[in-house]
Amino acid sequence: MAGDTAVSRQRRMVAVVPASRWRGSGDTEQRDTEQRDTEQRDTEQREQELRRAMTEDVVDVVSGLDVVEPVLVLGAQDPPDWAELVWPGTPVRTVAGGAVEVLADLHAHGAALGAVVAGDAPDLPGLLVGKCFRALSSAQVSVCPAPDGTLVALAAHLPVPGWLAASGVGLDSVGAVGVLSAAAPNRRAFTVGPGWHRIRGPGDLPRLDPGLEGWEQTRQLLKRLS
Are the C-beta atoms of 45 and 25 separated by less than 8 Å? Predict the structure, then answer.
């Protein structure tokens, strides 16, 4: 189809954004201060290791896609040495703000189509990112939603459509699909693709399917920590 062909010829970039801190992992039981502080440090270290492993797995997924340029976008909370998670030559940038700002940065670096992918979906099938781009043959914005109401991926024509920027939606926005549906100027401007899960807390770990290929870094880390 003509629309699909036009989209496939446009320069596409995908930014992987590491996950924010896990939810629900804090321990509220009363202990002496020294023991509590020690356990808190251990918990934070495990969370950091898991965030790193999941980010690396998502980077591997994106790097394996055809006709897509991967980018790793680090936040202020991410260690600088996480730049080592990507293949040599892959851009690593720091962008202040959320998904809209990341998309704007992709456009500033030459992308005509861009996507932002959450770094806490280590077993994400690359096909779903591809579906987001394919949907842009007829829509301005497409998403891969998560069961908790947030987004696994957000893709858009660039420059960022004004209505998307005004919506204030980011990957962690709960109810993102409803907000974007209401903000879109017409029904064709926004489309929702197949969903996937994010691993945002301990309760999400059972969602990982050992039978799925990939997510090797996360798989190995969880085995070591178990």
Answer: no
pLDDT per position as a tens digit, 57-116 = 999 999 999 999 999 999 988 999 999 999 999 999 999 999 999 999 999 999 999 999
Q: Look up the pTM and report it.
A: 0.91
Domains of the chain plus CATH, in order, are 2-23+32-225 (3.90.550.10)
CB of 7 closer than 8 Å to CB of 63: no
Bridge partners of residue 67, in order along the sequence: none
Tokens linked to 24:
């629900």
CB atoms within 10 A of CB 148: 15
Query: C-alpha angle with apex 21: 98 to 71, nearest 5 degrees?
Result: 45
Largest CA distance in the chain: 67
Backbone angles phi, psi at 31, to 5 degrees: -140, 170
